[in-house]
Amino acid sequence: MAHLRSVLSPVLPDASSPAVAILLHGYGSHEHDLAGLARWLPAGLPWASLRAPLDTGYGGAAWFPLSPDGAMEQDAIDAAAAAVWAWVDAHLADDARIVPVGFSQGGLMALQLLRTRPERVLAPVVLAGFVPVGPQPADATLADLRPAVFWGRGDADPVIWPDAIDRTRAFLRDHADAETHVYAGLGHSITEEEMEDVGAFLRPRLP
């Protein structure tokens, strides 16, 4: 199993941390990419920005391979989720919950963590993210629990295919209490307005 590298917040997670934000970068990026988003997180929330396990060259990494037609291998997604959970189990208290904040492929990972161990996940944030094809282990549980999820995306995003958007919309409709934001003119990116909305979403939901 891959051992993930990480960048940690100045407020380090420890045994007393009831929740820790986990930042999950996109395909071809790295663990430093999303660290700048931490200033929009609720004050005092410790965070860790993880590096994905697959090397894409030029300093970048990926959670799982992507084919030109957008196809994804479920085994690779499962392996990436297992690597994140191994990091969580090794570094955080057993009763600490994680707040995954993921961009693009990292957004899929944020939802994948929710769909595998929902009892450890709190208020995931999905930025320009999507879900894979096919059911996941905890989907039936989520349909009953309907956890809070933030889903933000731009209406001018040229990267996330329409069928992935439709699939994600349907999943969130059936399995979550989703707060959805669509930003006019935004491409495959994140804006300050979106992060202000993320902060407003998270603050009342943290312990």
Distance between the termini: 32 Å
**Count of distinct strands:** 9
- Rg, Å, rounded: 15 Å
Indicate the overall shape: globular
Major sheet summary line: 7 strands, mixed
Low-pLDDT parts are none
**Average pLDDT:** 92
Order of helices and strands: EEEEEHEHEHEHEH
- What class, by secondary structure content? alpha/beta
By DSSP (H or I, 4+ residues per run), the number of helices equals: 5
Compose a concise summary of this entry.
The protein has 207 residues and is α/β, with parallel strands linked by helices.
Task: Describe the model.
The structure is a single chain. A seven-stranded mixed beta sheet has the order 1-3-2-6-7-8-9, with helices on both faces. A two-stranded antiparallel sheet has the order 4-5. It has helices spanning 74-91, 105-114, 139-145, 162-175, 192-202, and strands at 6-8, 19-24, 47-50, 54-57, 60-62, 97-103, 125-127, 148-154, 177-183. Helix content is 29%, strand content 21%. The chain starts with 5 loop residues before the first strand and ends in a 5-residue tail after the last helix. It is α/β, with parallel strands linked by helices and 207 residues long. Strand 8 (148-154), helix 4 and strand 9 form a beta-alpha-beta unit.
Per-chain topology:
Elements: E1 6-8, E2 19-24, E3 47-50, E4 54-57, E5 60-62, H1 74-91, E6 97-103, H2 105-114, E7 125-127, H3 139-145, E8 148-154, H4 162-175, E9 177-183, H5 192-202
Parallel strand pairs: 2-3, 2-6, 6-7, 7-8, 8-9
Antiparallel strand pairs: 1-3, 4-5
